[in-house]
Amino acid sequence: METQGAAVTPRGRRTRDAIVDAAAELMYVNGVAATSVDKVLTASGAGKSQMYHYFKNKDQLVEAVIDRFLRGILANQPTITALDDWAAFDRWTEEILDVHRRAGHPIACPLGNLAGELGDDPRVAALLDKAYREWESHLERGLLSLRDKGELRADADPARLAQATMACVQGGLLLAHIRQDVTPLADALEIAVAHLRSQAA
């Protein structure tokens, strides 16, 4: 998700990254509506002319923030790109749980936060769906790999299984955050992996 006026120099990239980082933090904590361009500029130390060099409007900034959220999520789940056996799916769930244990309490999914605030906006909903589908695609590829190796039933549908797994992840994240208890997330992940393993060949 590159935006108009993308930086082409190292200095420009650092400035753009600082703007996106500041916007992502503010939008995560306060929401998009409460995050003005002026607040982003103050937090990032950038000037208004720099902001509008990289982003035509706030909508483009939100698009960049969604991408930044997704990159952060995937970075915290490195095994998701290497789901080459059933044990890897267990390691992936442990990576998710570890993020919330390290924080000392379950934290809100940044994409889920945006979906709750802006999910009725068709443009933002499309961007969020694209992000979720990229997240899901790693699960689907892992399941396809297992099917190719004969470890997943030939009639299993990796795309549907990946979607169901993502639904469990998101529901578990939501309840865990609301209740400040990692148990709902742990249970949801356990159910998701048990469902996947039920399709083993």
TrEMBL record:
HTH tetR-type domain segment(s): 13-73
Alphabetical keyword list: DNA-binding, Transcription, Transcription regulation
InterPro entries, per database record: Homeodomain-like_sf (IPR009057), HTH_TetR (IPR001647), Tet_transcr_reg_TetR-rel_C_sf (IPR036271), TetR_C (IPR011075)
DNA-binding feature ranges: 36-55
Pfam families referenced in this protein's UniProt entry, alphabetically: TetR_C_13, TetR_N
Xref: PANTHER family: HTH-TYPE TRANSCRIPTIONAL REGULATOR YJDC (PTHR47506:SF1), TRANSCRIPTIONAL REGULATORY PROTEIN (PTHR47506)
The protein, known as: TetR/AcrR family transcriptional regulator
Organism: Amycolatopsis samaneae
